[in-house]
Write a structure and sequence with these properties.
Shape: globular
Pfam family, one: Bac_luciferase
Number of helices: 10
Largest sheet: 8 strands, parallel, barrel
Organism: Tsukamurella soli
Protein name: LLM class flavin-dependent oxidoreductase
Helix content: 25-40%
CATH class: Alpha Beta
Radius of gyration: 20 Å
Strand order of the largest sheet: 1-2-3-4-5-6-8-13
CATH topology: TIM Barrel
CATH superfamily: Luciferase-like domain
């Protein structure tokens, strides 16, 4: 069995060919797709976070709205760039959204990917300290978030407060008692996967990672997952870790699918350079369902993960993407034992 969710990058574009022509369109359609996905039996609705772009950026209003409109589907991010975040304010927003959703948040966080502007986090008021990189700063913000989410008091109460205080140091409110166990780290390398395991965060691995061995992407990603699980065991955490991988998977079942994605057949891994680091990008899967079953069966990283996040072409609208997810669940997943 496999947990299957969708991952939307939340693109919008005023082009007549786009079904999401404004920020309002993509926000409302994200809610509608999550509702439709829950009705189909999809396990999760996840959203990418990008700043300074025609994409989703501030996730918590959206996550809270979806939480209020659904009842079972997991709701998450993939990922929030922690270089931009005030971890205490984030803990308040996340706690509130999680309580609205009844404990269904699955927050993916990370250092983030290359952004639209140079050092955009500086405009948000965050600057690395001397000797600290922006990646270090993102990890520091994450450490603070994890500590705050533990629920331990840390703030000295006012001796003359407006309202009576409980005894002892105060914590951030509202507090969701189990959210700390549902934080996922988006790891781009084996080393950051091991770091996430040592901190008790679940692993979220996307469609790219540092090219550390020159092997096919799915093989390197599977090794990353095994390194994460080994580090988790060494850390002695008292719960089982979760692992997700992301893939672009398009079942081609009619002429519409063929027109949009027929050229994606037979795609292969690609290698590029991101922030001066050689990275490998995983292939897309687009084919008839029986062909997909055979291709996906050979993906070692999917086999290692308990959760699969399928990227959706959100600009094609809710109806198309709901049908794509339904075809995946009914025509591909059973053949792989995922359903």
């Amino acid at each position: 069995m496999k947990n299957i969710g969708f991952l939307s990058f939340g693109h919008w574009n005023p082009s007549p060919q786009s079904q999401t022509r404004s920020a309002a369109d993509v926000l409302h359609q994200s809610i509608d797709l999550a509702v439709a996905a829950e009705e189909l039996g999809v396990d999760g609705a996840y959203f990418r976070v990008h700043h300074y772009a025609n994409q989703l950026s501030s996730p918590f209003p959206l996550l809270a709205a979806i939480g209020a409109k659904t009842s079972t589907i997991k709701i998450g991010t993939g990922v929030i760039d922690m270089r931009y975040e005030n971890p205490l304010y984030m803990a308040e927003d996340a706690g509130a959204a999680d309580l609205i959703a009844g404990g269904r948040l699955q927050l993916g966080v990370s250092r983030g990917s290359p952004e639209q502007v140079i050092e955009g986090y500086k405009y948000f008021g965050y600057v690395p300290t001397d000797g600290q990189s922006d990646a270090d700063m993102g990890r520091t913000h994450t450490e603070v978030l994890l500590q705050v989410l533990s629920g331990e008091g840390f703030a000295q109460p006012n001796p003359r407060p407006m309202f009576p205080n409980p005894p002892g140091l105060l914590r951030i409110e509202p507090h969701s008692p189990t959210l700390r166990d549902r934080i996922w780290w988006g790891a781009g390398s084996d080393a950051t996967a091991v770091w996430a395991a040592s901190r008790g965060m679940n692993l979220m691995s996307s469609t790219l990672k540092d090219d550390e061995t020159g092997e096919p992407f799915h093989v390197q990603q599977a090794k990353q997952i095994r390194a994460f699980r080994a580090a988790w065991k060494d850390a002695g955490h008292d719960r089982a870790p979760r692992v997700s991988v992301s893939r672009s998977i398009i079942p081609i079942v009619d002429d519409v699918d063929r027109a949009y994605f027929g050229r994606e057949r037979g795609s292969t891994d690609q290698v590029g350079v991101i922030d001066s680091t050689r990275a490998v990008f995983g292939r897309s899967y687009a084919a008839e369902p029986d062909v997909l079953v055979e291709e996906l069966r050979g993906d070692e990283a999917i086999a290692e993960a308990d959760t699969l996040l399928v990227t959706v072409p959100n600009q094609l609208g809710v109806e198309y993407n709901a049908r794509l997810l339904e075809n995946l669940l009914t025509q591909v997943a059973p053949g792989l034992g995922w359903r």
